[in-house]
Each structure stands twice: as structure tokens, then as C-alpha cells.
Amino acid sequence: MGKQGDIKLRGTVGNVIYYQWRDIHCMRTVPARVRQTDNTKLAATKFGLAVKSAAAMRSRLKPMLPDPANNAIRYELDGAFRKWLHTDPLEKAEPETMIRFFKHFSFNKAATLGKLFRMVNVSRINEHGLLLQLPAFNPVRDVSAPKEISSLLLQFTAATLSFDDQVPNKCVSTDWRIPYEDKIVPLHEIILPGLTAPRSLALMVMGMAFAWGLGLLVLHAEQAHPWLLPYSQVAAGIILLAVAAGMAAHWRSHRQMGLEPPKLLAEQLQLKIGHIVAAGAALVMAQSLADMVFVVAMVHVGQQHWRIWMVAMAVLVYSLAALALQICIVCLYCWLPVARRERAMNQLRYLIGKYTEPAAIAASAVIALALLYIGLPASVRYI
Q1: Whether 22 and 148 share a structural domain
Q2: pTM above 0.70, yes or no
Q3: Do residues 65 and 109 touch, judged by C-beta distance below 8 A?
């Protein structure tokens, strides 16, 4: 390290770096070419392959992951792949089962699921098949779950990662629902054919889902009437398409007309700010109770074992987010000088009259098509 003279520089010129260290202007040189040993190059290659392989595996297992964006889990999986690749598994002739780097890997560190997950065994049954074995167990004794639930849904996903461009990657999922009772469940075996191949890795991931309270009612309804959700999606899609068509016809014939309401209605709508906010809050609460998306979201919240105050905060954030636009408009109106309020309201009416109905038409059509795209294939199975 050398010190700079009277001229103080910061930056790089050629292979000389000018920088500041503890208020001292310094300079140092870097070699024009860095020579790496064969071991260094091999380690760098394996590191890159580990990161790429872990990312590909996470992508295939994403539906099973409780938090796909968790960086700590991502880095841990990268490390597991790196340790595995350092054993040169692709050069081994004999296949390996129950690889120690992945055997007890957990994608949900906060879950306390009992010893059932440690009892599962995965083995090969032939050249390309996997056998999943769950030994006899007692759900109440071997699974950590709320006592109020009535059943458990065990989910299994097997994903393959091929290091041979000629072999395609695969992903297979299955599940098994069992009653949550203080009784012994006999040995259960699941065969998954065609998942293993030379120069490839197959990972089996197991998850568990359960519900209680309101979630239990939703789950029972889905089990008793599996056709209800896809049929509801199709019906909602058709209704929204009809609404969009009706709004489009109305807009085409009335877009030259103003948005001024009748005089009697205008007098009835002269509410105070507090009444407007209260009416908006009541409308959002009523909509939330009837909103199936909100109900499903609360079921997922229940699966996280949140405390009461955490659930209350989630509902409050949801309501405030829904009211955010109304609150902003009211606040801006209050902060405007009195002389500019009428002009601002006229401008707002103009924007509403010009863009609101076309935006509602487009939104209704897009949502309707999405509902039909999701619901039609599923509803055909129940015809």
C-alpha cells in the first residue's frame, strides 16, 4: 500500500487503485491477470452448479413451500447441494438412497410436526421407481396438531433434477387424508414410478395441512361438495361477463351525459366526513365477510398458528388497505383551501366520468375470463 501525493484521487486507472482508508489517501496495484489453480476452478464450477441446481429444485417444489422467498432456507438448500456435489455423486456408478444432506432438510423451521416426518422412508423399487413407506403410527401421539381438528392431509411431492440434457425433469404430487383420531393407522405405501434415472437427483418432500374453526367448516364444505367451487367460479365468470356487457352498452349510449345525480339523491348524499368514513368502513367489512378470497386467506392464517392479536392486526391491515383510497381522497379534500375545493371536485367528477366505467368494464371482463379459464376445466369433471 502506498500513499498518494498532493493530488488526491479515487478510482481505478489501469491496474492501479486509488482509494481512501481512515482519511488517508492510498494507492495499490492489482495483478493484470489472476491465475487460478485447478482446484479453485473446480470449486467455483461446483459452487455455480449448486446454486443453479438448488434454484431449479425450489422452482419445482414451489407449491409445497410455505415461504418460497425465505432467503435463509434458500441459502441452506444451496449449501446442501454444494456439500452433495463435493462428494462427486455424478461419477458414482451405484445409486444413492436417503442422501444425508437432504434427508432431514426442513423448509419450515417454525413447524413442530412431531416424529411422523422422521418415520417416513423412501427407497427404490426398480430402476426408475420410488417407494414411499409410512409405518404404522398414531396421529394424536405422533403428530403435533390442534386437538380441535378432525383430519390431516399429508401431501407428497417428488421432483427430479437431471444433469443430462437428454433426460427430462419430472414432478409428481399425491396426497393422503387420514382422520385425526387416537387410533393406530396401518402401514401405508405409495409407489411413484418413472422418477429416477442415471445422472439425476430425485427429492421427495412431505407436507401436512389441517384446519379448524371456520377453516374446518370450509374444508367440510369442499369435501362434501367438491363441485361447488368450480361451478361457483363459472357462474361468477358468466355473471361478470354479463355485467361487463351491460356496462359497455350503457357507456356507449350515455357517455356524452354528465354524472350529475338527481337533485333529491344529491341532497340525500350530503353526508358529513365522519359518516362517509363510517359508511365506507361498514361497506368494506360487509364485503370482507362475503368475500371467499378473504375467507380462504383466513384459513391459511389459521394454519400459521397466529395469536389472536396477530389475526386482528391482519384483518385491520386488510380493511385499512381497502379504505386507503377513500381515506386519501377525504384527507386531500380537507387539506385543500376552501376556494379550490369546488374546482377539485369538478375535476374529480370529470375523471370519474371519463375513466371509471371503461376501467370497470375492462376489470370485469378480465376477472370473468380468468374465472372461466380456471373453473371450466375443473367443472367438466363433475358433469
Answers
A1: no
A2: no
A3: no
